[in-house]
Structures are given as C-alpha cells and as structure tokens.
Automatic annotation (TrEMBL):
<dbReference type="GO" id="GO:0046872">
    <property type="term" value="F:metal ion binding"/>
</dbReference>
<dbReference type="Pfam" id="PF04055">
    <property type="entry name" value="Radical_SAM"/>
</dbReference>
<dbReference type="InterPro" id="IPR004559">
    <property type="entry name" value="HemW-like"/>
</dbReference>
<feature type="domain" description="Radical SAM core">
    <location>
        <begin position="1"/>
        <end position="229"/>
    </location>
</feature>
<keyword id="KW-0408">Iron</keyword>
<dbReference type="GO" id="GO:0005737">
    <property type="term" value="C:cytoplasm"/>
</dbReference>
<keyword id="KW-0949">S-adenosyl-L-methionine</keyword>
<keyword id="KW-0963">Cytoplasm</keyword>
<keyword id="KW-0143">Chaperone</keyword>
<dbReference type="InterPro" id="IPR006638">
    <property type="entry name" value="Elp3/MiaA/NifB-like_rSAM"/>
</dbReference>
<dbReference type="GO" id="GO:0004109">
    <property type="term" value="F:coproporphyrinogen oxidase activity"/>
</dbReference>
<dbReference type="InterPro" id="IPR058240">
    <property type="entry name" value="rSAM_sf"/>
</dbReference>
<protein>
    <recommendedName>
        <fullName>Heme chaperone HemW</fullName>
    </recommendedName>
</protein>
<comment type="function">
    <text>Probably acts as a heme chaperone, transferring heme to an unknown acceptor. Binds one molecule of heme per monomer, possibly covalently. Binds 1 [4Fe-4S] cluster. The cluster is coordinated with 3 cysteines and an exchangeable S-adenosyl-L-methionine.</text>
</comment>
<dbReference type="InterPro" id="IPR007197">
    <property type="entry name" value="rSAM"/>
</dbReference>
<keyword id="KW-0004">4Fe-4S</keyword>
<dbReference type="InterPro" id="IPR034505">
    <property type="entry name" value="Coproporphyrinogen-III_oxidase"/>
</dbReference>
Amino acid sequence: MILYVHIPFCHRICPYCSFYKHTPGDTDIQAFIRAILHEAKETASSSSLPPIDTLYLGGGTPSMLSPKHLTELFEGFHRTLPLENTHITMEANPATFGPNKAALFKELGVNRTSLGIQSFNDHVLKTLGREHNPEQAAESVRILRDAGMDEINIDLMFSIPGLSNADWQHSLDTAVALKPDHISAYNLTYEEDTEFIEKLTQGDYAQSEDTNAVQFQQAHDTLTAAGFLHYETSNYAQPGMESRHNQSYWQGIDYLGLGPSAVATVGDRRWRNLPDTAGYIHAINTVGHAKREEEIIDAEAYRIERIALLLRTTEGLPDHYLEGSPEGEVDTLIENELAEIKDGKLRLINTGILLVDAIAEKLV
C-alpha cells in the first residue's frame, strides 16, 4: 500500500500546471491540516490498513506550510497510520525553505525531497511563472545536503516556449554538477484549463516534435553519461535511487489519496476526492470523507493502464498484458527495431522510447 497526500496551496499559480491548486487566500490552514488528519484517521479505522511502504506529499507546494503546520501534520500521521519503515517523499519549491526548515524536514522523517526547479535559466523560469531564481535553485540543493537529506530529486522541464537547445544544455549541466540522486526531465505538455493551452490555441506558442526529440536526446545523453540510469521515459536515477513511490504506481500497487482532488485505487475500486478545499474540509468534518467520483476498474481497464505505464519503463511490460492486443502489432514493432521481447517482457528501444504514447495506443 502506498499513500499520496495532496497539499493544494501555492504562493503563485504556474501557467502550465493543471493540478488542483490555489493560493491560500483566506483558507484556515489549521482547519485544513485537521481535516487531512481526520480523513487519515477515518481511513485507518474503516479498514485494516497494511503497512504503508511509501508516503508522498505533493501539490501544490507542501514545503510552503509553516513549521508548526508541518509538525502537526507529520505527528498526526505517525499517531494514526502504519508508517513503520515508510519511505517519505515531499515536494518542495526552492523559494519556500531555508536551513532551519530543511532540518525540520529531516527531523519529521522525510527521506526524499523532490525539488520543482524546472530550469536553471532565469528567462525560462519567468516564462514558467516560477517564484525562484537559478541561484536559489542551486542553493536549495546545497541546503538539503547540509541538512542530511537522504535523497534529492531535481525536476526539470524541456520544450518550453523560448527554451533553446543551449539553454536546456545549461540546465542539464547545472543539475548534474549539483550531484542530486535523481533527475526527472519532463516534456512540457499543454493541459486543459491552463494559461499555456490558451496561448497555444491562440497561436502565441507552438509545439515542435523535432524540438521534443532533440531535447529528449540531449537529456538522455547528458544524464546517462553522468552515471544516471534511464529507468523510465522521464526519469533518471543514480543506481539504487529510483523513485519507490512512482514505481509502485506503475506496477499497479493499491494506493490511497488524502486531501482535495486526491485519487485512490484499492482493488477494483477507484475514487477521487472533491477538488475544492473549502468543500473538502466541510465534507470531512460532517461525513468523514470527501469521495465524489467512484468507478470500477475492470480487468481490461487495468490491462490498458499497465500497458500505458509499464511501456515507459526500462523494466518493460510483461507479455501477458499483450493478450488482446491487435494481431501483428508487436511483430511490426520488433521488425522496425522499436521494441524487443526479452525475459518475457516487451521493452521499447531506439526511437520507440520517444513514441511510447503512440505505441501504447496501438497495443490496446
């Protein structure tokens, strides 16, 4: 069992992000923390929870919570949930913490910090609406190291409007020089209900498959040359530092979600919490849960999800998930040297790695 906790607060709303988030405004943060802990308690008491292998706090910006609220949240989790030997990851914005807060992260049991840096180019950070600068980003890594953080991830993004290949190379080289344990290199996607999709629709921004391919290859070449293992389409890790939490998602392990908009899947049931912080707090306090969207994940839906996710990994897709795929598609992939079958698993190779989404669609 793995657990995700959604903290929806951000000081500033990034124009590319489609996750449920908002500025704190007049939200009663104390009431929010207590609602999260109430939901955790109700979840734990309503079923016999197995030990939680990984806990991931995302958002939003969990690191912007005050030391008082972070302490109350973590102490409440440890009282309520089976967190013995749990690996804990927290997302953080470089502009939201210094040495004292980083030390608190470690004291509260955080094992891994995932830094939403995105770029080490000032003009690109401004395009993305980020509130930190390149110097703060680099300093945040050093601060976490000095605090004794076990694992550090740096999130980077490419194919951003105005990002040249030279800019991207600078970000990659800077990230490598900081010696993190893990680097995520994501291709910008234009999501619904964001400022970026509006600019794309209006013609202010443009997408280029050539740019995507070139900058993907830059990341692959630079990071693998620095000793990082390319273990998933967008993720690179030093040996043994792969994201345990994400690997569990990809494998289809049951997961719980706490907080507004958080999703859970247990067995064949999936549900999503109300994506409204005030409504979430009210629902938790009145009925003990905020479930709004529930569905049954049947065997075929589960198979399709495994194809979409496991094809992205270097571990590959167990070939029994290919039962039901259109006849001849796998043979064509192998003949075109886009994939191989080894040890009973289908793995994408060469340019097939770049075409993962299109290939997944053909196999379902």
